[in-house]
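Before relying on records like the one below, remember that each one covers exactly one chain. Contacts with other chains, cofactors or solvent are not represented anywhere in the record.
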Amino acid sequence: MENTAYNGFSLKVVRDFYGISQSQFAKLLGISQPVISKLEKGDKNLEEIHIKNFSEYFEPNYFKRNVENVNPKLFYRKLSSVTKSKLGLFESRLNLFYNTIVEALEIVDLETQSLPRIDIDKYYREIDGEYKIDFEYIATEVRLNFGIGRGPINDIIKLLEERGVIIHFFDYDFISSDNNKFDGVSFYVKGVPIILINNKIPNSRKVFTIAHELGHLLLHFDDMISIERDIEFEANNFASAFLSPAKDIKSSLRQLNIEKLKSLKMEWNMSISSLVYRAYTLGTISQQTLRFWMMKLSPIRKNEPLEFELNSPKLLKKLFEVLEEQTNNGFYKHLGFTEKMRVELFGKDNVPYRAKLKIVLD
């Protein structure tokens, strides 16, 4: 019987993608669970007949690809309440997305402007009598690097995509409005920065999460990060300072009331909750007042009033259009993804059409 060349990790990824246990997978393929274990470890070859038994879940080309466990330096909010099975579903999608971009960049040369790399140890200052990281200074330098003046950022997606950051809003089927445990994730693929954002969270939260993930890309690019550093704290403080510089917003964050916060939300494209926390970090409200506002806002935090429109990312779709042009409409076929997998990973709107080779954002 003919054997198919493949690596065991590719089998595990597709099993995790569908949330299937080894025992369930073995039953579908008509083999025993111990055999599945050997296949995933690479100790045994997968036979052609077994691939046919599972053809509704992936195309044969899938096993002709070198799907590797890239295990990139990923940053996402892994809450203690997230189950192992949910993490498996999420991480399998990250691996497939990552590997796809790796292959895409072997075909298309995506011109990007390198993001600055911030050595955070150089930004410690004496602030209010304490030696702290000066996130205001870091954010100011990044805004200058990006050519941003003072005031609100009107379109953070366009701003980052013009610098070659691929942004994608994912709609993973296992995440519901009551199960929003993953806000975002960021990593580099061959030097190209990637930010993936949960499309089910409100737009105001998307904006902050994009800025938060940008913070990870700028501050936490090194694999060797001290365990004493609170990288989530650092990314949050960078995001706040980047979106709302202290010199521009501090005077507006005094004597807060709900109507004032609503007005500031529309001006700064930030959630009410993040504005209240910004007021606390800038010292315009006390910790006690912060607790008061957090309790007051708790019932509306998942569905705040006055949510604003947010432009959709464009760069990923343009990349796929060029790939289809370059491969005679064969890139998706080469991936070996079923229609379900393709839509789940990249969204139904990323349908390619004939395009020019060079990627240019409007």
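Strands lie at 3-4, 46-47, 124-127, 130-133, 166-170, 184-189, 192-198.
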